[in-house]
Every structure is written in structure tokens, then in C-alpha cells.
Design a protein that fits this description.
heterodimer; A: 117 residues; six-stranded mixed sheet; B: seven-stranded mixed sheet; 0% helix
Chain lengths: 117, 112
């Protein structure tokens, strides 16, 4: 059983369309990260959301953290071919004694987005 | 700054062979991580090193060993490679006080 469930797994759309990717869990997290990965490269951080209900915008990308801090969504407006890639959500393990974070990340299985010109 | 570098980029092994994947970071980060990525499964943590001199198991450590050689370098060793270890391996690093991880470009390993 995956700690984080991402949906959809695959998304193929035309340039200019809008889309939303979801990341869900039954657990509560202190923060959640979204990464984007291009073919042949490692993931790159897009955003970290920390507060329940938080909304962050990065140009045409809008990220939301659920009120209960169990889920998150990524919305892309007017998608472009350059948005093509693998989108991953990830959460950090709970902090250990003394408040030190071990920084271990647990990833969702990812959403492969293809935007056709 | 090069960030996180990994060598080699590609490797083909036969079952039973051994090899070491190298990782180095020049960002003075304290923590380093090894993940494997398989289709439909995201990235899974193999081993991590919270700080120089310490290492610990992640979610899928069986068949692997690691060495934190110094603050910059963290290597992953396969003692006796198996076809199930065919995957793309990523090294990452993180500053002690932040959550963001910085990833290398990956090593694509095929075990025949």
C-alpha cells in the first residue's frame, strides 16, 4: 500500500488545456513537496507547502495543501509542451527526538504528463 | 558549482557481478540519500546518511551497502547484482535545516 496515492498516473493533453494532479493520503503530514522530473534527469523541487489550506502559485502552476494536511493538488493553467514531465509529490518522515529531521522522503508513484503542441 | 554528480551514467552488469555507484556533492550539505526509481513506483529510499559518519537503512536496503566516505561523497555498492536491481539510481543531498533535496542526474543500471 502506497503512503501517497497520485492520480492520474498518466495524462495526455493538448497545448492550452488545464489540468489537475492529485496527491492523497490517509496520514497527516507537516509538509508536502512537489517535484518535477524531466527524462534523463533527477527530480527538481517546485514547491513546499506547509500550512493546511495553503495555496502557492508558481507562474501557471497552482499548488494547494488540504485543510487537514492529508492531500494536495497541482493545477496547471494553459499547459505548454515545456510542462511535459513526471510530477511527483513527496513527504518527509516525522521529526525525531530533539526536533531533528532525518529528511527521508516518501514519494508518490508520480504522474506522467504529456502536452502535445 | 556542479551540485550533485553521479558516476557512471550507464552500466550493464551480469548477475553476480559487483559494482559501486559514486556520488559527490559540492554544496556542503550534511545529509545524503540513495534512491531507486522503477516504473510506476516513484522513488524509493535505499539508504541515507543524516550526517558524516552515520548511515542508516531506508525502505529497500536489501542487496545494497553504502559508505559515507567524507562529507562530500556517499557511495552505493552492489555486492552481487541481481536482475531485480535493474533500475535508475539517484543520489540526493540536503542541508540539515531544510527539507528540499537536490538530486543528481542518475545512474541507469541494467543487470542481465
Amino acid at each position: 500500500t502506497q503512503l501517497l496515492e497520485q492520480s492520474p498516473q498518466f495524462l495526455s493533453i493538448q497545448e492550452g488545456e488545464n489540468l489537475t494532479v492529485y496527491c492523497n493520503s490517509s496520514s497527516v503530514f507537516s509538509s508536502l513537496q512537489w517535484y518535477r522530473q524531466e527524462p534523463g534527469e533527477g527530480p527538481v523541487l517546485l514547491v513546499t507547502v506547509v500550512t493546511g489550506g495553503e495555496v502557492k502559485k508558481l507562474k501557471r502552476l497552482t499548488f494547494q495543501f488540504g485543510d487537514a494536511r492529508k492531500d494536495s493538488s497541482l493545477h496547471i493553467t494553459a499547459a505548454q509542451p515545456g510542462d511535459t514531465g513526471l510530477y511527483l509529490c513527496a513527504v518527509t518522515a516525522l521529526r525525531g527526538a530533539g526536533g531533528t529531521s532525518y529528511g527521508k522522503l516518501t514519494f508518490g508513484q508520480g504522474t506522467i504528463l504529456t502536452v502535445h503542441p | 558549482n556542479a551540485g550533485v554528480t553521479q558516476t557512471p551514467k550507464f552500466q550493464v552488469l551480469k548477475t553476480g557481478q559487483s559494482m559501486t555507484l559514486q556520488c559527490a556533492q559540492d554544496m556542503n550539505h550534511n545529509s545524503m540519500y540513495w534512491y531507486r526509481q522503477d516504473p510506476g513506483m516513484g522513488l524509493r529510499l535505499i539508504y541515507y546518511s543524516a550526517s558524516e559518519g552515520t548511515t542508516d537503512k531506508g525502505e529497500v536496503p536489501n542487496g545494497y551497502n553504502v559508505s559515507r566516505l567524507n562529507k562530500r561523497e556517499f557511495s552505493l555498492r552492489l555486492e552481487s547484482a541481481a536482475p531485480s536491481q535493474t533500475s535508475v539510481y539517484f543520489c540526493a543531498s540536503r542541508i540539515l535545516t531544510g527539507d528540499e533535496q537536490f538530486f543528481g542526474p542518475g545512474t541507469r543500471l541494467t543487470v542481465l
